[in-house]
Amino acid sequence: LTEVVNFRASLNNFRGNIPKEIGRWTRLQNLWFADNEITGTIPREVGNLVDMNAFLFYKNKIAGTIPDEIGNLDKLTWIDMEDNQIVGTIPQSFYSNLDLEEVIFKNNSLSGTISDRVGDLSKLATFWASFNQLSGEIPTTFGECLKLEELELQNNVLTGSLPEEFGNMESAEFLSIESNQLTGTIPPRIFGQNIPGLRILYLNGNELSGPVPENYGQSPRLKDLWMNDNVLTGMLPIIAEGEFLFLEELLINNNEMTGEVDDSLCLIRNDTIPGGNLGVFHADCQPPTGGGAPQIVCSCCTACFV
Questions:
Q1: Contact present, 125 and 149 (Cβ < 8 Å)
Q2: Using CA atoms, how far apart are residues 40 and 122, in angstroms rounded to an integer?
Q3: Residue whose C-alpha is closest to residue 202's, from 233, 223, 224
Q4: pTM (2 decimals)?
Q5: Could you tell me how far CA 264 lies from the centroid of its own chain?
């Protein structure tokens, strides 16, 4: 079998370990065995597969660490290890695979930091590392990944601030940074024409503070904007006519915001004429149980919280 080029065995009930003899398949380009019952660890001999383009082993029970030899796969474009039991850190050698386009670490037990070398992955389009135990600050070098479309970092223990350099990610469509421990303010450069295709922005469940940027309505394709469960202050800025044309969900509940929601936001509700697309709008507009005024006065919110 040393001449095998493609090995695709996903969606079966295969059990057992990945044999180290797989390192003899040096002509292998595609190794797929996702959605099985494979256990054990990733053998270091995988590093011998220098012609491999795609390595997919999501939805198994593989444990252990990512071997340093993973950095030998300089033709690798796609790796997906979602839904396993991988532990340890992402080795520095991993970032030597400069042809990587899709990287999926989601739902493992990875720890440590994301290296600044992620900025070397100039072809990167997808980076999913959510539902792990990654810590430290988000590298500012993500701003050098100009082809990056989807970035998932939610449900880790990331700290520090949101990088202003996110505003350089001109291809970004989906940014999910929710449920971490981020502090500081929301950088205005995340919004606007510099990221024209941004559709989803999830910043909820952090410790972000300060006001919502004045230019937040200038993201032309934004559909979901979740900023709930932070410590934001002030009130939502007025939006201009023609802004938020595609916005469907706006969540600002469980913050420290006060004041009155401007009519400009009510006019983009999906039940007004001519209206817009906003159908989910949550704010802290519920009066306290002991009486008194709500934090926010809102005549068009779809759900009110205390």
A1: yes
A2: 32
A3: 224
A4: 0.96
A5: 30
DSSP string, the chain: -TT--EEE--SS--EEPPPGGGGG-TT--EEE--SSEE-S---GGGGG-TT--EEE--SS---S---GGGGG-TT--EEE--SS--EE---GGGGG-TT--EEE--SSEEEE---GGGGG-TT--EEE--SSEEEEEPPGGGGG-TT--EEE--SSEEES---GGGGG-TT--EEE--SS---SPPPGGGSSTTSTT--EEE--SS--EEPPPTTGGG-TT--EEE--SSEE-S-PPP--TTSSTT--EEE--SSS--EE--HHHHTTBTTSSS--SB-EEEES-SPPTTSS--SEE-SS-SEE--
Question: Which residue, 214, 162, 224, is CA-closest to 192?
Answer: 214
Give me the pLDDT at residue 231, please.
98
Given the structure tokens 């792990």, which residue do they identify? Answer: 132
Residue pointed to by tokens 């007025």: 238
Check: CB of residue 122 under 8 Å from CB of residue 99: no
Record the tokens describing residue 285, joined without a space.
């507009």
Percent of the chain with pLDDT strictly greater than 90: 96
21: pLDDT strictly greater than 90: yes
DSSP string, 238-280: P--TTSSTT--EEE--SSS--EE--HHHHTTBTTSSS--SB-E
Per-residue confidence at 273, pLDDT binned at 50, 70, 90?
confident
